[in-house]
Design brief:
Blueprint lengths: L2 H12 L3 H7 L4 H8 L19 H14 L1 H20 L2 H12 L4 E4 L15 E5 L2 E11 L7 E8 L2 E8 L5 E5 L12 E11 L11 H37 L1 E2 L2 E2 L4 H30 L4 H27 L9 H12 L6 H16 L1
Parallel strand pairs: 1-4
Antiparallel strand pairs: 2-3, 3-7, 4-5, 6-7, 8-9
Helix pairs in contact: 1-4, 4-5, 4-7, 5-6, 5-7, 7-8, 7-9, 7-10, 8-9, 9-10, 9-11
The protein binds flavin-adenine dinucleotide.
The site of flavin-adenine dinucleotide has 20 residues, from strand 1, strand 3 and helix 11.
């Protein structure tokens, strides 16, 4: 399957049902299975492991398409893709051969960093990963794990001796308990759940490479993928907002003229257009850096995530304004975009955390 076929499949499977899924808090299992089973949710995995082998640029455009259709499905795509990337980045050849084909043939995976006391500050993680002979024992609490309600595999980050480690935990292992986050404000069908790990024992070959490295180093490697995926998802949010507002502003007449001819409304449309174009360009630049593995990649991904998320939050607010009461119903695409976009400023490095890191790049380059 290529990017075009994947785009067609997603578009057909989602159709206009995302609003209903959001209200129900659930994407039908057969939709998730159909996409995960064809490798669409982790499309950068190489073909030798059953993936589509897409570049970051092509997967980015696919992610934007999903983001425009359904923020919850895009969230699952981000976490499943981030799990696959973490396995590719830190797994040995044997671990990659063991796990990646499972992911591309439909076993949903998710990534668990956050804890009640460790959000932006991941160094405060307390989940313990300890070796015990041929096993690894994991104990701790993870919160807000996207897709954990559906996942078969959990990629868990925790403390390991003086450093940190990543371990793959099958979700049906004794001692794992998931509890859905009740009534999330947005991306409501993404199966967010808290995960309780009570002396969970898994074979030691679930421990990925890099064990003992600082947690910030391990987490930032995995988060790079998530940030870029969220950024492309935000491009999708802006495109969905443009589609809805362009249709409405040209057909709704007030004071004897279509809304689009009133200059203050036209300004909103111009701002949305600029936001979508600049977010697309910053994301495409970051993806090209990612594909070429240039030294600029980390900074380009941060810039893309921060710019796309803040632009989507502002753009979705403007879209609600242009729609007026026509968009003010729960389930309407712009109402959903408005809620989803706000959370994009919090996840995968909040706007403030991105700004702190970007300020360091600014000082390095300009002081
Ligand atoms: P806090 O860290 O408590 O921050 C609260 C506010 O303070 C934010 O505005 C933040 O920017 C600001 N702040 C914090 N520190 C500073 C600072 N030094 N300087 C300036 N401002 C600061 N976690 C996972 O592990 N896996 C997932 O799949 C996952 N999915 C998620 C999906 C959703 C929809 C949401 C809402 C969360 C998800 N999370 C997930 C958790 C997410 O990673 C955290 O919410 C995020 O890291 C922020 O942490 P926090 O919510 O604890 O906020």
């Amino acid at each position: 399957m290529n990017k075009h076929d994947a785009t067609t499949l997603v578009t057909e499977l989602v159709g206009d049902r995302a609003g209903a899924w959001d209200l129900a808090g659930r994407i039908p299992g057969e939709v998730i299975a159909a996409l995960a089973g064809k490798g669409v949710l982790c499309a950068e995995v190489p073909t030798e492991h059953g993936g589509l082998g897409l570049s970051s640029v092509d997967n980015g455009e696919l992610t934007a398409t999903v983001g425009a259709l359904c923020g919850s499905l895009r969230s699952l795509m981000t976490s499943h893709g981030m799990a696959a990337w973490t396995l590719s980045r830190f797994g040995s050849a044997d671990q990659q051969s063991a796990y990646l084909p499972r992911l591309t043939f439909g076993a949903l995976a998710t990534v668990a960093f956050s804890e009640p006391g460790a959000g932006s500050d991941l160094a405060a993680m307390t989940t313990e990963i300890a070796r015990d002979g041929d096993s690894v024992v994991v104990t701790g609490e993870k919160v807000w794990v996207t897709g954990a309600a559906h996942a078969e595999l959990l990629v868990v980050f925790g403390r390991f001796g003086d450093g940190a480690a990543i371990v793959v935990v099958p979700a049906d292992t004794p001692g794992v308990r998931t509890e859905r986050v009740p009534d999330p404000m947005a991306c409501r069908a993404a199966g967010h759940a808290d995960v309780h790990l009570d002396h969970v024992r898994v074979p030691a070959d679930g421990l990925l490479g890099g064990a003992g490295l600082p947690v910030t180093l391990l987490a930032s490697a995995a988060l790079g993928y998530g940030r870029l995926s969220v950024a492309w998802g935000c491009v999708g949010i802006l495109r969905a907002c443009l589609k809805a507002t362009a249709a409405h502003a040209t057909t709704r007449t007030q004071f004897g003229a279509p809304l689009a001819e009133h200059q203050l409304v036209a300004r909103h449309l111009a701002d949305l257009h600029v936001a979508e174009r600049t977010a697309t360009h910053t994301c495409a630049h970051a993806s090209r850096c990612w594909d070429a593995a240039t030294p600029e990649t980390v900074a380009a991904v941060l810039l893309a995530k921060h710019h796309a998320a803040t632009s989507a939050a502002r753009g979705a607010a403007a879209a609600v304004q242009v729609m007026g009461s026509a968009g003010a119903r729960d389930g309407h695409p712009v109402a959903r975009a408005y809620r989803d976009a706000k959370l994009m400023e919090i996840i995968e490095g909040s706007s403030e955390i991105c700004q702190l890191a970007l300020s360091r790049y600014a000082l390095t380059e300009w002081s």
